[in-house]
Design brief:
single chain, 173 residues, alpha/beta, Alpha/beta knot, 5 helices, globular
């Protein structure tokens, strides 16, 4: 179900775990965001597979599939993009999110391809690669992707509200 003016664009580069993508889809639906799935993806999202997984809400998710990173860029051409990476040193709360921004997330196992990170740094600047800070411990190597997306979206919403004094129009009820 297309959203006329999504609050944010959530781009998942080659997601691998269906449960994470399902949770992210629910977050996108609940926060008026558009979800972009950049292939290849590691699972089936056909209507039958979603029904079998009990994802009755999936038909309400505004999502677009893209055959590749290049196809995504050709189709969307993001004006402002933030890459979330476990390897980044800049905390997400130091970013200045705005309505319409794209929040990009990599594969669960290893993030985005280094060429994509280079593209983000070249196009938008080093400050557009951010992370959710964690303790310095090898056992805390990363957070669950769905958790990171939810934290990112709500930090973005908090910033939009702080900057404008209101929630985005989608939240006016």
């Amino acid at each position: 179900m297309p959203i006329p003016n999504p609050v944010f664009h959530l781009a998942l580069w080659q997601p691998q775990i269906p449960n994470n993508t399902g949770n992210i889809g629910r977050t996108a639906m609940a926060t008026s965001c558009r979800l972009h799935l950049i292939h290849p993806i590691g699972f089936d999202i056909s209507e039958k597979a979603c029904r079998r997984a009990g994802m009755d809400y999936w038909k309400e998710v505004d999502f677009v599939e893209h055959a590749s990173w290049d196809a995504y860029l050709e189709s969307v051409s993001p004006q402002r993009l933030w890459l979330f990476s476990a390897r980044a040193t800049r905390p997400a709360w130091d970013a200045s999110f705005a309505e319409g921004d794209t929040l990009l997330f990599g594969r669960e196992a290893d993030g985005v391809d280094p060429s994509i990170e280079t593209w983000v740094r070249t196009r938008f600047g080093d400050d557009h690669v951010v992370a959710l800070p964690m303790i310095a411990s090898p056992k805390a190597r990363s957070l669950n992707l769905a958790t990171v997306v939810a934290c990112a979206v709500y930090e973005g919403l908090r910033q939009v509200r702080a900057a404008t004094g209101r929630m985005p129009p989608a939240y006016d009820r």
